[in-house]
Here is the input.
Amino acid sequence: MFIKEDIIYVGVNDHDIDLFEGMYDVPEGMSYNSYIIKDDKIAVMDSVDLKFGQQWIDNIKKELGDRKPDYLVVQHMEPDHSANIDRFAKEFPEAKVVSSMMAFTMMKKFFATDYSDRRVVVKEGDTLNLGEHELKFIAAPMVHWPEVIMTYETKDKILFSADGFGKFGALDIEADWACEARRYYFGIVGKFGAQVQALLKKAASLDIQVICPLHGPVLTENLSYYLDLYNTWSSYGVESEGTFIAYTSVYGNTKKAALLLKEKLEAKGCPKVAIADLAREDMAESVEDAFRYGKIVLATTTYNGDIFPTMREFINDLTERGYQKRKIGIIENGTWAPVAAKCIKARFENSKDITFADTTVTINAALDDKALEALDCLADEMK
Here is the structure.
């Protein structure tokens, strides 16, 4: 696949993977992207996952013919992008390895060598001239590892964005970008909103015509759409007006309340109501929806003097990713001593700009007239 006449894709698609990073369901597979820039000097941009090493090397050789790469640029040391550095180094012994100093420190941990005899250490603002193409390096610490650099190619105005602007899914399957990019972002990068904001400020000074991420498709059109979404996500802004209801239910009564609230919200004109059973639906998708909408309702049972474990896991996923700037409604259930609302509020004590609805719906085992009235009031607040 040609990105430009002399910039070629040499990555791979993985359809054998079931869980990315051991936890994210990826039914449409995953891509590990790598690129070649052909010029007076040849640079290969990043490696691929370990099990695709030979395929990657074959892709490089097929595109280069009799020529050999001069550089391997390593932007990110996570193994799905760096596992074949040593294989590359042995296959092309004359090639130099270009990366940040911290990345070379990590390489020694992974490969027992930091390539001191062939390394080129780069930092913010450094450049590498290939001929007509010049690479300018941009430090991107904690997006989402500390060693990350990104690369701006000045001739064709391409941003090689490491894990930024990535998404779940292999490249040979057509899928909506935003859905799986959002799930990817909030699952993997979401904790580091401030660092992404800092990166976007740097990107604003560049004339970017193409974005080449390490996962997902090359972005070539309407780049403001992707940049604007990243700005919204990383600033914890509201992407879509509406309310997300996340619930857990043991015997069905809390589920009944959650579904009834959905009906009431829709009847009152709420622009969008999304709902998820946390015990049965993909947790990463629920996290994605919690960040997508400006309002969320947490409906759960009191369980062992706390909240139901799946709800506890969900809230932990939100708070460790910096959940903020949201309004939260609560439905609690407890037959003899409901404390779920109290426990939920305690878990958001250190979160910024969280507002709780004035109405807390308390269910004592099953819905009664008092709980139904409270549900109506909560719908008025969360519509």
